[in-house]
Amino acid sequence: MRNTGYFKNKKIAIVGLARSGLACANLLYELGAEVFITDNQDNEYTNDNASRLISKKIHLELGRHTRGSVEGKDLVVISPGVPARALPVVWAAMSSIPVISEVEASWILCPATIIAVTGSSGKTTVTTLIGNTLGKSGGRVFICGNIGTPFSGEVSKMKEGDFVSLEISSFQLETIRQFKPRVAVVLNICRNHLDRYKDMPEYINAKKRIYMNQDENDFLVLNRKDIFLEDFAKDAKSKVVFFEEAKGLNQNQAAVLSVASALGIDKRFCLEVFNEFKGIEHRQEYVAKIKEVTFINDSKATIVESAVWAINNISSPIILIAGGRHKGIDYTEILAAAKGKVKQLVLIGEAREKIKAALEAHLAIDEADTLEEAVKKAFLKASPGDCVLLSPMCSSYDMFKDFEERGKAFKEAVLALEKNTFEQGKD
Questions:
Q1: Is 1 helix (H, G, I), strand (E, B) or coil?
Q2: Are residues 43 and 67 in the same domain?
Q3: What global pTM score does this model have?
Q4: Rounded to an integer, what distance in angstroms lies between the CA atom of residue 357 and that of residue 327?
Q5: Same domain, 266 and 301
Q6: How buried is residue 50: exposed, middle or buried, by Cβ count under 10 Å (0-12/13-18/19+)?
Q7: What DSSP character marks residue 182?
Q8: Which residues of the chain register pLDDT less than 50?
């Protein structure tokens, strides 16, 4: 690591005790900081993470936020899901205490070359493919960030000459100050997170921060076909590289090739990785086939465009399970892909009334109170040759702690259904 004395003897409040908050707390404590954690949740998940803290000297507040958890601190570090209106952030602003993201804290310590990937969809796939390509070419690489492995949990292992393939969200970009990736990648901009941002311009401005500290020695990789990204190219001080789909290459692969080119990596390593890539968990993941009905887990699809991608890449008729927490998006944008393809929609979660109002004139709709119930209903409505697809178009936070827990719950429900069906068949 570099700058290892930066946090020593500082009083630091960490807001949020999910994966990134836990990793950051342990890291900064080891570097000599006095660490205070505050999380407004007090449940099995936060208590489990609390048990993983490396010292009882790390101050902990669960189930609430108190002003004392922030006042008198030198720095506040927030987890990705913490909004600007959260009380600890407001209190920090009132006391002129700097607020940064866990990504910024990790960047201060990171000696490796960073390739940062953002966009409304495709981030996890592209981050993984870039990491695999760097590894294939002989580099020592860490794949982390919003992909599931916190940056702060890996940075202590990094050395100069290493690479970081880093997935980064608009939430994390909101509070960066000096963060400066060698390569910044913006895949696309779609209507997303309008439950957090007042409008699209505010969301786009958050994405723009990924390149705000870059200079002429850095690279900004942009999707040529995305009209929202035209201004990004005009504003950037870095070298702009465009990518676009081509024969035999999808958008994600084209982005990876552009990154490899910017870094001087031979194209053949990319092609080898594309050939070997089997996909990622919770993204169009095959789960099982029960009585000739295929079940696909696409829990990571938290926007309409991701669900459209999944629908377009499935050739069979679809029973679609969707719903969760509303993000201010327009569900009617699914209709062009769903027409003649989606036989039935089974809705769950807080957003189901909004989705129903938007789509009931066009699609057959049923509702379920739990994901397990939705799986059973979808199976009953499916015919041999159909596909039951979980592609929610919404975030998971109404019913689950994240999209991964939602995807695992779907898979468990499918496997339980498979077991019951098999046992009934034996009788």
A1: coil
A2: yes
A3: 0.81
A4: 15
A5: no
A6: middle
A7: S
A8: 426
